[in-house]
Amino acid sequence: MKKILFELVDEVTDEKSFLHFMNELRKDRINHKEEWENESIEAFLEAANEWGLTSIDGLPYYNKPDNPWKRCAQILYMGKIYE
């Protein structure tokens, strides 16, 4: 069974798994463009950056991971859905 993109974020532990996640994120954009809130690269990066800044110290329902690879994957994932 193929894992959903959100599940892959939690599996990121190192550079190799991060690169795997990035490739799956790319494929998700190609195959499910209509599910993305941010259509341009500029909007995607802005949303990712904004969420990263907002969550830099954690949030009420979000505990920032210690692993920097996982944190980067989370920031990129949020670029897809954060408005």
Quick structural gist:
The protein has 83 residues and is mainly α. The protein has 4 helices and no strands.
Primary descriptors:
61% helix, 4 helices, single chain, globular, mainly alpha, DUF7660 domain-containing protein, 83 residues, DUF7660
Characterize the structure shown:
- There is one protein chain.
- By secondary structure, this protein is mostly helical.
- The chain has one domain (5-81).
- It has helices spanning 5-10, 15-31, 41-54, 68-81.
- Helix 2 packs parallel to helix 4 and helix 3 (41-54) crosses helix 4.
- 19% of the residues are buried.
- The mean pLDDT is 94.
- Residues 16-83 form the DUF7660 domain.
Topology readout:
Layout lengths: L4 H6 L4 H17 L9 H14 L13 H14 L2
Helix pairs in contact: 2-4, 3-4
Relative helix content: 55-70%
Shape: globular
Strand content: under 5%
**Count the strands?**
0
Query: Can you give the mean pLDDT?
Result: 94
Largest sheet: number of strands, sense, barrel closure:
none
